[in-house]
Amino acid sequence: MGAADQVVEREGERDGGESRDEEEVVVAVPERKEKEKEEEGLHLRLKDVEKGEVGFPGEVAGGGASINSTEYRTAMLQRLNPSNPLRIVINGGTRVAASAAATRSVPTPSPPQSNVSVPRSTPTPQTSVVTLNSRTYTDRFSLFLFMVHLVAAVGLVGFLVFKGVQGLLQASEDVKRKEKTVVHYFLPQVEAASFLSITLAFAWQKAVRMWPLIMVHFIVWSTFLVSLSAGVLLLCFQKAPTDGIGVCLIGFAIGNGLYACWISHRTKFCCKVLIKSLEPVSKFRDLNHPIYWMLGFGFLWMSIWILAVIGALNFYYPPLTIIALFLSLAWITEVMRNIANITVSRVVSLYYLRGMQSSTQFCFQRALTYNLGSACLGSLFVPAIEALRIVARGLNLLEGEDEFMFSCAHCCLGVMERIFGYGNGWAFVQIAAYGKGFVQASQDTWELFKARKLVEIVDSDITSSICFLTGMCSGSICLIVVAAWTYTVHRGFTATISLLAFLVGYLMTRIAMALPHACVCCYYVCYAENPDNRLFDNTIKDRQALIESGRDVVVPTPRVTGRSRLRT
Q1: Which of the four, 95, 161, 354, 512, has the lowest number of CB atoms within 10 Å?
Q2: How far apart are CA 341 and CA 296, in angstroms?
Q3: How far apart are CA 444 and CA 421, in angstroms?
Q4: What is the Cα–Cα distance from 493 to 487, expressed in whole angstroms?
């Protein structure tokens, strides 16, 4: 080995076949001490080459010219192979960066591509992006079924209204006299009940928004008093149909009173959540507009529906026809309520999740188009779920040692366990925010509650019960007014008109109460997604701490657990 090593560099043809004179660059590399050769290995030298720094201060022999270290490093960077930085391009060929101890390196052709070791980056897993602006129609089969039902309902109502008008104009004198009696003593009371119900709906919602702390207690106990009064009034008429309805109302009033005592320790937390969840409402002045639209459509539809009921009295099988009309009305009004629910849920949930000031009109359009199928499907499932929830709680209290009651409770708990996994009222928040289907949103929401250990808290929430009791109170008020009026003018219609007035008052108020209910649902679901959001305070966290420490006891919806086995 000589005192200096030589590296010959030849530059060949470049840029479309142009040839240049070959230049020989002789790089003189000074001798390293023997101690440095032993300490510095090949790995460190290759690392220097990869960085673009050979680390050998040298001079170029040729014409007495010299190249400083900076120019040398730049030339080395330009000659790095793009596929492998450890290979240096020389005259179209490649050579591996060698040790400084090599005396001379002859360019060798690059090996086949299959033998070249090309570093590959490890692919990063792509997480699924959740969109907040889904354009997919959800639950299309339910949407199709509802549209078919709506067309059939409109046709049936129109036909029955036509039959009623035809009876007034073309029927015999006896039929005309009967029709005029029905119109004279039936229609005014039911229409008055519609006006009274829409007035009560606005009043209840406004009062809950203004004084939530007072209204929670007021609704629970006023429903008990009003429903009890309505039942007693109907019993005083001493007619078999009115007695039957009166007994049902008195039984409900007794159950309502027991329920009011049972939830007395939960009303304080419910008021806190209700007050906190209603705070975003003041930031959206038009948030009530969808409620107004749904109440307006509901009032118009009920007015026409009442005329169809009058026409059904002169049609074949009047009881079955009226029952079919009632089931249709219940589904349509429930869909209206859930449309308002989804609209409010989208506005409020996007405010919690993204801090967005969403357009209420745009959210209302989405609820009427893309999310309408989920609203239709949820309108069938959620009322049944709420009813089963009440039954499960009642059977859990009455279970005791009776084997028959235990079997009924066990069966009901098994049904509840399955239903809550595939359908619940909390799903409307994710339907509105992410455009999910009803079943998928129900599953995701319930799993989210389980992951955040919120199942006990959301199970013990009484907001849905408060909204239900508000509707019952409005229905009882409408019943009292209409029953007293009808009994004085035509006693034969008292039971029928009283029941219709109760249903109209209940359904209209339920539509109006969709706003506070949606706000509370958004508060829980959005908190479960991001508990550290600055928009949430420590209300739920403090509640969880009390439950975990045993200082607070909740009574959740009963579920199938290890103790739910057949007793031996």
Answers
A1: 354
A2: 16
A3: 9
A4: 8
Minimal CA–CA distance to 536: which of 353, 360, 267? 353
Spatial separation of the C-alpha atoms in residues 373 and 378, rounded to whole Å = 9
Contact predicate 189/497, CB 8 Å: yes
Whose tokens are 């330009």? That residue is 78
Rounded to whole angstroms, how far apart are CA atoms 192 and 489?
Answer: 15
CA distance 404 to 425: 31
Task: Identify the residue whose tokens are 């009963």.
Answer: 558
Mean pLDDT of the chain: 77
Cα distance between residue 426 and residue 466, in whole Å: 16
What pLDDT, in 10s, does the model give residues 453-470? 998 899 888 999 999 999
Ranked by mean pLDDT, the top range of 113-122, 130-139, 151-160 is 151-160
- Could you please report the per-residue DSSP string of 91-160? TTEEEE---TT-S----BPPPPGGGS----PPPPPPPPPPPSS--PPSSHHHHHHHHHHHHHHHHHHHHH
Q: Are 489 and 192 in contact (CB under 8 A)?
A: no
Predicted structure pTM score = 0.74
Q: How far is 543 from 462, CA to CA, in rounded Å?
A: 15
What is the CA 315 to chain-centroid distance, rounded? 44
Beta-carbon-side half-sphere exposure of residue 543 (alpha carbons within 13 Å): 21
pLDDT at 554: 58
Closest C-alpha to 430, from 334, 342, 532:
342
Query: What is residue 369's predicted lDDT score, i.e. its pLDDT?
Result: 94
Tell me the pairing of strands 26-28 and 87-90.
unpaired
Structural contact between residues 139 and 373, judged by C-beta atoms closer than 8 angstroms? yes
DSSP label of 28:
E
175-212 burial code (b ≥16 CB/10 A, e <16): eeebbeebeebbbebbbebbebbbebbbebbeebbeeb
Q: Count CA atoms within 13 Å of residue 521 on its CB side.
A: 29
Coil, strand or helix at 292: helix
Report CA torsion sign: 320, 323, 327, 328: positive
SS3 52: coil
Give how far Cα 161 sits from Cα of 294, 307, 436, 457, Å.
Answer: 23, 6, 39, 49
Q: In angstroms, rounded to a whole number, what is the distance separating the alpha carbons of residues 273 and 230?
A: 32
Paired with 87 in beta bridges are: 96
Reply yes or no on whether the pLDDT at 239 is more than 70. Answer: yes
Place of tokens 């600055």: 534
Tell me the two tokens of residue 118. Answer: 């090309």
CA angle 9, 13, 16 (to 5 degrees): 150
241 Cβ contact list (under 8 Å, min separation 6): 494, 495, 496
Backbone angles phi, psi at 60, to 5 degrees: -95, 125
* 108 backbone dihedrals φ, ψ, rounded to 5°: -120, 145
Q: Cβ distance 497 to 486 under 8 Å?
A: yes
Q: What is the dihedral angle through the alpha carbons of 243, 247, 249, 250, rounded to the nearest 10 degrees?
A: 130
